[in-house]
Amino acid sequence: MTLRLSLPLVLLLLIAPACGGGGGGGNDLPTFILPVDFIHTVTAENAIGTSTVIENPLTYGRPDLILLVTQNRTVGGTPSLANRSPVGVVYDDRGGAAPPYGRWLIANLDTGAEPTMRPDMAFNVSIIQPGRDAFVHEVTRIGSNPHITHMSSSPGPLHGSRDTRVFVTQRLSRADGSFGAINRDAIRTHFTSSNWAIVNMNGGTIPVGACFNVVMLPQTPDVDQFNTMSTAAIVWYDEPLTENAIVHITQGPADTRGRNDRDVALRYSSSRGEWGVSNIDGSLVHQYATFKILIRRR
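-> structure tokens emitted (298 positions)
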């Protein structure tokens, strides 16, 4: 039985992102829990093998939450340690009626590329209430293209629109806290004629039981898309932002001229006042890469 942690009302204050252009009413949009946009830094105390424990009371006992996680290579103006594995989140429900309650962890998916979580690795984390446009997508069958899993276009206007900004984080547990299958590959999004899909970039099969946190948002000044114009070690989002912002990146859909088949991390340049994207394996970002960017200002 999963414990649902009772929290003071002030800590359960919810706020919806600003609505702008297209997509359903404000009450239907994903709601972010305040103040849960934060940087999680791996330490010797919170690292457990290939995972790192998120110690935040607002997430305790809540396997249903939708977490977005993006690797952050710049924390406090200092480069953080590179993690060369795609990551996902997993809920560990081995807690009880007293601390430690069930906890969320960030986990390396490709343990061959990165066998352990090491101190000074860092990740941007945002926590979203589950709803129509913030949900867990689970693979229930393998289709004719086994490296692609399609999401339904029927739940709401955002699901069937090419203009929707879709953000995805892999997860190893279902909404009820039970464990799903592990997809070890880096992913991007793709839009078909009527719905959104998640794609393994290296062409590997997405296994039945693999789960993904999906957040769908209409375009706003803080929910955007940008394309790279040239091949580079770091491609910059050409808008002024502070390092204090919590930023998330999801790749796709792929440009017809090419795509970037590598997982990515964020970097900040204080001299430019901009956030940029680099490949986690150190290779150059492809000229025609496409990225969805979500900015959470603090």
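The chain has a mean pLDDT of 86.
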